[in-house]
Amino acid sequence: MELVPGNTLITATPDEGRALAVKLARLTVKATQSDAEVRQRLRPAYAEDHHSLIAIAQVVATEYATIAAANNHWR
After folding, report:
1. Structural domains in the chain (count)
2. Domain for residue 3, yes or no?
3. Could you tell me which InterPro entries the record lists for this protein (predicted)?
4. pTM of the full predicted structure?
């Protein structure tokens, strides 16, 4: 499984960086729980849990900060 699509964090725009951050977070979940059936079964539980939703938002924010730094904050 390719954990960093294209093996690069470089993106053309901040919006592309944000999309990459979301993708990286999703790939992390997939790598951690490789059984798709289990992920599907667990999804309703965390989709209704505000703590889980806040936690994933924090993961995406961390990924985005890393991508922004790699892109010299698009300057």
Report:
1. 1
2. no
3. Hexamer_Tyr-coord_heme_pr_HTHP, HTHP_sf
4. 0.85
Tell me if 7 is assigned to some domain.
no
SS3 for the chain is CCCCHHHCCCCCCHHHHHHHHHHHHHHHHHHHCCCHHHHHHHHHHHHCCHHHHHHHHHHHHHHHHHHHHHCHHHC
Q: The domain containing residue 59 runs over which residues?
A: 14-74
Residues 6+ apart with CB under 8 A from 25: 56, 59, 60, 63
Q: What is the pLDDT of residues 42-67, one digit of tens each?
A: 999 888 999 999 999 999 999 999 99
Spatial separation of the C-alpha atoms in residues 71 and 26, rounded to whole Å? 21
